[in-house]
Each structure stands twice: as C-alpha cells, then as structure tokens.
Specification:
Layout (H helix, E strand, L loop, with lengths): L8 H17 L23 H16 L7 E5 L5 H9 L3 E6 L2 H13 L6 E5 L13 E7 L8 H11 E14 L16 H11 L2 E7 L5 H15 L7 H21 L3 E9 L1
Parallel strand pairs: 1-2, 1-4, 2-3, 4-5
Antiparallel strand pairs: 5-7, 6-7
Helix pairs in contact: 5-6, 7-8
The protein binds S-adenosylmethionine.
S-adenosylmethionine binds next to helix 3.
C-alpha cells in the first residue's frame, strides 16, 4: 500500500485533527461509536448524530437494494468503515473499500475485524478520479457518501464510476451542494458544486437518475443544534484544549452551512443512479 498518495497530505492532516472529536460527536447513548464520518439524515426519531448516521445508512442501503448474494461492490471514500462493515454484516455481498488515506483503510479493516466481516472486505488506496484498480463493467454496485466535496475534478470521478459499473448496475451518491461557494467561511480543500452541476456530471457520465432527494432540511438545522448541545453539555474537554478548539471550529462550520441552507444556498443531494 502506498501510504503517501499524491494530494493526500492536506486531507490526512485535516482528518487527523478532527477525527477524535467527530468520533465523540457520533457516539450513541449506549457508548457505541458509529465509525461513520458524515452529517447523517435526521429523521424525527433521531436523538443524536449516531442515530442520524444509522438512518442515513438505511436510506443508502434502501437505494442500493436489492443487493443479491455474492454481488461485489465498492464504497468510494469509505472513511473509517462504519457503513462498509455494517453493509457486510447485514448483506451477503463482498465489498472493496476505496479511499485516499491509508490511515482510514487501516481503521476500516480493524472495524470490519471487530464485526467479523473482514473476509469479505478488500481495501484499496487510491484517488476516486483515477480508479485504475477496477476493470470496465466489473462492479455490481457502487456508493459514495460525503466524499466528493474533496474532489477538484468531479466529472472525471463520475466518468470513472460509470466506466467500472456493470450495465444496469446502481450507483448511490450523496453530498453537500452549494449554490455560492464564495459565501462558505472555510473554503480550503472544499470543492462544493451546485445542484444543477451534479445533474450535469451524472448525465454527462452516461448515468440515468432513478431517484433524487434534497435532504438539506433533515441535515443542517438538526445537526447544528445537536453540535451546539454536544459542545455545551457532552464534550468532555477543558476550555482551550485541542478538542474544545475543534468543537468551536465545527460549530462555526455548521453555523455557516445552516445559514446558507436557510438562504436556499446549501443543500444535501442524494441520488440513486443506474448505468
Ligand atoms: C467525510 S469522509 C466520509 C467517509 C464515509 N463515506 C462516511 O460517510 O463515513 C470523506 C472521505 O473521503 C476520502 N477522500 C477524500 N478525497 C478522496 C479522493 N480523491 N479519493 C478517494 N477518497 C477520498 C477521505 O479520505 C475521507 O475518508
């Protein structure tokens, strides 16, 4: 495995800095960690980010279904494996986890070991815009959750996804959308696209949109409210400590995103597409 993949330095540093805080933020009431790194889908019964990330997992799996026994798919930008291991736990499929960061793939493998599903998991380090490890028309399903805001050439990414899917196979895609990136406070390393751009990328790649939802209302306001509550009541970190600083930063990020959402300038797009 090539540990220092081209362009990964800044992204690696960012996740090293924020990962522990996000792990705490997504802890369930009984202490279980989600091992997901995303904003979640806040349905009315969600009490915390863990619940919202599990509700989001259910939404994604519902869109991927039916997943037939023996099917082989890829999670692109798998993070630390929360969704991958749970997918393998609930479905008799095999999965390749693809991510830019070696650290994330090691944590994914560790979580899959804990869940006793590592025999059906393969980890591959690489860049989503050049997925040379996969043959044309070779995959039964692909999904990519909240990773593409890191990609500076999204059309290349969608073209790659279309190339590697078998004809008729499903690709589920979810990410932040932004209609005016100049209003984003922390821009470094973020490559947000507008809703219409997503539609164009998908269609230009030769994928068909089967279902589309903008779940922004079930993402930004409830996540922002929960983060504020978490920082005030649950974050076990002295004022001025690194973790408290990360909490403050995350609060500022989510305040900015929620404000943009309320102005109609930010959304969260979820697509089921087919080749
Ligand atoms: C916000 S996390 C989401 C992780 C996971 N999808 C989840 O929902 O828990 C984004 C992930 O995308 C990965 N990533 C960023 N740029 C990438 C690229 N060009 N190719 C592959 N993965 C990338 C990051 O390393 C990180 O693990």
């Amino acid at each position: 495995m090539n540990s220092q993949h081209e362009g990964s330095g800044q992204i690696n540093e960012f996740y090293r800095w924020i990962r522990d805080y996000l792990a705490d933020l997504s802890r369930a009431t009984d202490g279980e960690l989600s091992h997901a790194i995303n904003f979640g889908y806040w349905t009315p019964s969600c009490k915390n980010l863990f619940d919202a990330e599990m509700a989001f997992f259910d939404l994604v799996v519902g869109m991927l279904s039916p997943l037939t026994a023996g099917a082989h798919g890829v999670e692109i930008g798998c993070g630390i494996g929360g969704y991958a291991a749970r997918l393998l736990e609930s479905h008799p499929v095999s999965l390749s986890c693809y991510d830019l960061l070696e650290e994330h793939l090691l944590l994914t493998r560790k979580f899959a070991e804990e869940k006793s599903v590592v025999d059906r998991l393969n980890t591959i380090q690489g860049n989503s815009m050049e997925m040379n490890s996969f043959e044309n028309d070779s995959l039964d399903f692909v999904y990519c959750i909240e990773s593409s805001f890191h990609y500076d050439e999204k059309q290349k990414f969608f073209n790659e996804v279309c190339r590697v899917l078998k004809p008729g196979a499903t690709f589920v895609y979810a990410d932040i959308s932004c209609e005016d990136s100049s209003k984003v406070t922390f821009k470094a390393g973020n490559h947000f696209s507008a809703k219409e751009e997503f539609n164009n990328f998908i269609q230009n790649a030769g994928l068909k949109i089967i279902e589309h939802r903008d779940i922004g209302a079930q993402v930004y306001p409830p996540l922002q409210k929960y983060t504020e509550y978490f920082n005030d009541e649950l974050l076990d970190a002295p004022a001025g400590s690194d973790k408290a600083k990360v909490g403050k930063y995350w609060d500022l990020v989510l305040n900015n995103y929620t404000k943009l959402f309320l102005q109609g300038l930010m959304g969260y797009q979820v697509y089921k597409t087919q080749k």
